[in-house]
Amino acid sequence: MRPRAWQRIALLFVAAVFATPLLFMLVVSLQPEGKGFERSALDLLHERHFENYAQALVRMGGFGRFLWNTILITVLSIAGQLLTCSLAGYAFARVPFRGRDTLFLLVLATMLLPDQVTAIPRFLLFRQLGLVDTYYPLVLPTVLGGAPFFIFLFRQYFLALPAELSDAARVDGCGHPQIWWRIMLPLARPMLVTVGIFTFLATWNDFWAPLIYLVSPENKTLTLALASFTRTYDTAVEHLMAASAVVLLPCVFVYFLAQRLFLRGVAVAASKG
Length: 273
Prior knowledge:
It is built from 15 helices and no strands. The model has no long low-confidence stretch (mean pLDDT 84).
């Protein structure tokens, strides 16, 4: 069913509202230094200052190192989430065992606990292990399956797949690890993309956890470097907006690159009760 005219207008209005901060950031980042709030977007037709981006990266100090740190943490977090959450989701969906539903409810119940409640005990634990100022506190929770929402998404997706696939594989002599690896994961590509995007956005933009656990300047992520940008330099707002645009660009690119698979994964997971 095609959307009506008023629905299209409503969607365009909502899209414009959400796009306004992004457009404002881009417009200000291309204005002359000290003139970000004094000139309009129409002035960009005649004069655009792309050198603001180069100056912002230079003033950030060690941008390449911060970028590498962020990429490393993000890639390891995505790999950890996809591995452990898909395994747990498969177990709750396809492996019968006593107390499975009760255990799954307990997993979902952990979503009621905000991160602020467990922040201090978790910090004390990692400090006792000597892992503060390393990347382990940022990566280990994902490798150990610390995302009940993603476990829920994988379980819902695996439940939506025909049970005959697993039955046929067991007849051919496959065990649960082989069924998970050879059959379920290839079919769950939309959900893998969905969880990967969620993890990427959460890890790339994370400020809370790096602020707590990372102390050394060389271990900083892009979010920490961006937060300290204005405190370290007498920075013009144009340079700050340029640096923010550089940090935000990968998020926009990744989302639009995998948008179809992302929406398909969410739709399939939501359709199975």
